[in-house]
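BUG: 3D viewer hangs when loading the predicted structure for this chain

Environment: internal workstation, default settings.
Expected: structure renders.
Actual: progress bar stalls at 90%.

Input used:
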Amino acid sequence: MEAHLGFRGRRALVTGAGKGIGRAVAVALSRAGARVTALSRTTADLESLTRECPGIETLCLDLADWEAVEAAVGAAGPFELLVNNAAVAELQSFLEVTRSAMQRSLDVNFGAVLHVSQIVARQMIAQGVPGAIVNVSSQASKRALRDHAVYCSTKSALDMLSKVMAMELGPHKIRVNTVNPTVVMTDMGRINWSDPQKSAAMIDRIPLGKFAEVDDVVNSILFLLSDKSAMTTGSSLMIDGGFLVS
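Structure tokens produced before the viewer hung:
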């Protein structure tokens, strides 16, 4: 599977790998021959992942704990590929945003990406190897959504962080891009968007008339990690069915 993308033997770290997109990316990379380390804060999810794909190594960490992340990720590397997928969605109206929701979102959606990427990029530079980083952003970074004040803002910050990373890491042959999906039909996505009235309002704004499937996002991430996208860095790949054109 995906042997033509050149992942065999390459070391990859995937955060938020216990469920959904992150889990699917970890499995796809492993099956394509990469040596994958999956990071999640939920032990049960990592245990079920290793049962599904025994070759995957795991790290159980809360990404908000900088000291623990520094030690564990540093010891687990070096890596050549990184997918920053972990995120939280604290949905509150603007007038009801709490300090705790804001801080947790900043810690995971922005701070953890910066920190993990620093650790991994320093390893790449020390090893003198080229690398690729994909940050999982959202269409919410480009368009305001009701009750998503903190989520939209942290994803917008992530997009700009990725551009600065691409600029500064490019001379070290490290590429950095984002994928920006619409609603994705993970298990949680199906639950959260099962109300026909709620989903219809969003789908009506998507020219292709549907939400994204997990494989739509996984395939885009694999492309951006691979040498098939060797001249692509600092870009945001929209996986939104045309949501932003309407």
